[in-house]
Batch of 2 targets.
Target 1
Amino acid sequence: MGNLKDKGLTPGLAVVIVGQDPASRVYVNNKKKACLELGMYSEEYALPEETTQEELLRLVQKLNAKEDIHGILVQLPLPKHLDEKTVINNIDPKKDVDAFHPVNVGKIMIGDYDYLPCTPAGIMELLKDTGIDLIGKECVVIGRSNIVGKPMAMLLLHQNATVTICHSKTRNLKEIVKRADVVVAAVGRANFVTADMVKEGAVVIDVGMNRLENGKLCGDVNFDEVSKIAGFITPVPGGVGPMTITTLMKNTLTAAQKQR
Ligand code: GUN
């Protein structure tokens, strides 16, 4: 970073948040904080709930053209009256540090990409850190969202893992998860993965961020019981979340270098 600054290049990230979703607010604050800590430039656009599609698209176009902004992140989910797909399609793929634009999604599919999606790429770093070789391993991803489940499966496949994606219509979910060497839980349901579903020694990655009635944050995995049998397990909070932000920072840096 020091070197970049000497060359007069400060990576710039624009974060757009629409409405008052409390979880989104926390995520956006963490992203801004990370930029500040790394000496990157960031701009926040906190728009009211009633923002129209046209207003949001106008902002995206403005940011596409802004020279001091190298990365654009529109925090999802957007309020129901806004069309997420159209908004993402309007972000310049070069500035799409989330890797949500169809051009970037397609590049990931082929294995020839500039940006990796933040949460799955952060998880791949965690898996690398375990020292476990993924070749031929049974990896089960629970959840098929465009943000986590689908790209996660693709990144595991790139490492020659055997990948199964489970979702709400999956039959025998418990049996499938039980044979996994690596489980990635991205369901959005508190304590969904229980000890009886997990093989002894498995790596368990918890992407969940569920708010309980008592206000406490809780993952998709029942940490207390699964941690007794897992080989590795990520906590919530403090596991996957910081890795998501790390990848976002890395993507913003790449974006700045590419747009120089
Ligand atoms: N909502 C939940 N995760 C993400 C993310 O990684 N990027 C954006 N833009 N929105 C999200």
Target 2
Amino acid sequence: MLCDTRLLLNMAKDRGVCAFNIYNFEILKAIVDVAEELLIPVIIQVSEGGLEYGGGLSLVNLVKTHLKGTKAPYALHLDHGRDIDVIRSAIKWGFTSIMVDGSHLPFEENLKFTQMVVDIAHRAGIPVEAELGTIGGTEDKITGDMHLVDPAEAEIFVSKTGVDFLAPAVGTSHGAFKFKGKQEIRFDLIEEVSKRTGVPLVLHGASSLPGWLLDEAKRSGVDVEGMNGVPYEVLKEAVRRGIRKLNADTDLRIAFITGLRNSLIENPGVIDPRKHLNRGMEWIKRIVRERMEILWNP
Ligand code: G3H
Ligand code: 13P
Ligand code: ZN
């Protein structure tokens, strides 16, 4: 059933709730199949690019319809909302939380933009996640360098904006190439920001790219050279320090592509896309199940 995102994060207490990006029915269905089997809360999130790909309201209606009659608790979250029109639409369409991403703006402007969005969202009863510092990496619409969060700024930011959840930049980055050289996740920053702000924290760029997945991806022909992620043990330590929501998109992308490639290569005569898509979904289920079990169980 679709629930308030705050409820899911409160249920977590000292556990981690998985947030997975979706943009089509196959990814949604794979995640929901696993959540219904495990009965563990999960956040389904859609980026601006994901909404554009999925046809906006059509995708949202698909999610809502698919969740009718389900037993596990789900939330529907707008990921990296930068466009105020998209944010307003998400609120109107029934998202249970939204992220306002003003991380590309200077501190004062991020604060003002976030305040404005919090005002709009809270009047509609919708909680808000904001980003402070800059989570680096590359995706469709979000590219940039990493700037770590300043805990003193985080304290001011949360008290002045009234955001419900905060995504501090603590060393992770988006995409399949997360760590270069000595770069690492800063547990001390997570702990200090958690203590100073008192709000549930969100870890972006939290895909793990486990060895088995990269090995299988490589076997299927994906160029995995230089790809790396955040090991599960590191994620669990981040949860102990105050992280409650852990975002993953890249893990699912790699799993989906691996399944599709395997099926396409093994079955060159099969022209029914459903056969190949089913294999892609099987692979998404593997990574989703592993992640949910590891992060939810203390
Ligand atoms: O952090 C954002 C997600 O990975 C979504 O990326 O903008 O390519 O859909 P996208
Ligand atoms: P990954 O690139 O590590 O999957 O992170 C996704 C994310 O942070 C979505 O907001
Ligand atoms: Zn992100």
